[in-house]
Amino acid sequence: MAVDIVRLLELTSWRAFDVADTGRVLAGSDESGSSQLVELADGERTPLTALPGAVTGRYLPGERAVVVQHDTDGNERGQLSLLRLDEPRRRPAQLRDLQPLVRDPAHVNRLLDVLPGRIVYATNRRNDVDFDVVIRQVETGEEAIAYDQGGMVLEATVSPDGRQLALTVPADRAMSDQLLLVDTETRHVLALTGRGEQARHGQIGWLPDGLIVTTDADRDRAGIARIDPRTGARRWLVTSDEHDLTGWLSPDGSTLLVQANEDGASRLALHDAVTGDLLRTIRLPADGWCSYPLPPPAWSPDARYVALSFSAPAIPGDALLVHAATGECESLTESAAQLDDLVEPSSHRVQARDGEQVPCFVFAPREADPRLAGSAVLIVHGGPESQAVRTFSPIVQALVAQGHTVLVPNVRGSTGYGKRWYSADDGRNRLESVADLGDLHDWLPSIGLDAERAALWGGSYGGYMVLAGLAFQPERWAAGVDIVGISSLVTFLENTATYRRAHREREYGSLTADAEFLRSVSPLTRVASIAAPLFVLHGANDPRVPLSEAQQIAAAVRASGLECELRVYDDEGHGLAKRINRLDAYPRALAFLARHLAKPD
After folding, report:
1. Mean pLDDT across 396-402
2. What 8-state DSSP symbol labels residue 275?
3. Fewer Cβ in 10 A, N or C end of the chain?
């Protein structure tokens, strides 16, 4: 085999978190085993942090300082600290070297915005459920609560004059956000969109006379619109009938960076923020991706630069720097140089039972181990409101190197293909996305694969999909790998972090009104039907999907006499963030699949 999972997991990847007016880029590198802050400038790389777990950060505008966000063992209770870059330092900063800003380890604190001398963050310290927005003076520690009207604040940004705060909170319907405007002095809240509206709103930017947002209000495909802050009236700036668009406004309000989502590939261009006219296109290094789940693009305060995080199927992850005046895209790191034997996918539309077309990437092995030739592994993304995009996956590449053909679908409920598609599994349609797995299975013989040797792999909601596929389609699947997955929607909602329960009930249904339905679509309810061996991975500190979800499905599968391996990592949360744990877990999972998908002797 040209590559194996150990070599793939040891590859270094880069992320770009922020960029200064000088062109210095605040990046993340996982060379140490977890993502740590590194500054990229003038061809040099300066390590900034060496904390036990993964960190992110932003520059504090106008100062040589970084606001660092960190947690403990993946528990997602973010803490905020300051790292002064103008102080001499012989080694990367450890936790004791950081200046505390917000240290409240019993609660969640998330950095939302950075301003000269101030930070804006959300915290659930008031009641563990609702998130308040707080503006904190960095030097004095003085804090002012700007918003405390309840809900999970999704994003927020302060106007240039500091007098207004624009933010989004979950609306009543699944995958819908309400846009609010807050007077930071009086704390008066003006709703610019309705709670009952089915629409996303995000990537808020400030213009001298209004707001810029990315939204799919009254559209199937998301576009970029100006919002009147007095009335909420909307005027479209950049739209497409074929692709979802996302826009990031420059700090001076002159320019929009626009991403078109073309079947999971980013197509970038710069547009005039007043007229919406195209200014110039940006050429990326490959067919890849540069926004969520990667860090979002970041403009420099003077609007001269944009820092991008970029990944593609054969590019683990790089930091790019865009020069706004020319559109030139400069690669600051070269992660692809570490390995050159990676596989690119082909793109397909798979006919579903009702005539719908399920988008699907197929990664085919160049040389298949004869024992594994013809086997298939379907990797299902989480969310469910997420998308499988054209990024690097060590798991995909390792499975392909073993000889499996890997399918990565965007089943019903996935984003990136319009509102109709991401809404198609809401509420009582929960099992429609699971039925898509059956349609993909039925398609396998048409591309030369053995339907008797097909397995499922997924994390988070993708883990639910793995368990649901095994439970509701037991005749189709030969094995499953479940990573931090939901085994019962009832116990998940009962035991997930309190601040997440109401947020997730919008998507799945409520414990009060829908308990019987939730029970009926839960894999645990149908566990007696599971006929395939199962491999389960979970983090002990997972605040989203509690460890009990893994423990109860593993116990039930074992009670049926089936093989089920459960591996729990005490220093992880919702997924495996540390390389040492991935190096332990994933080779075992791949060996498990190889054993169960091999041709019989």
Report:
1. 96
2. T
3. C
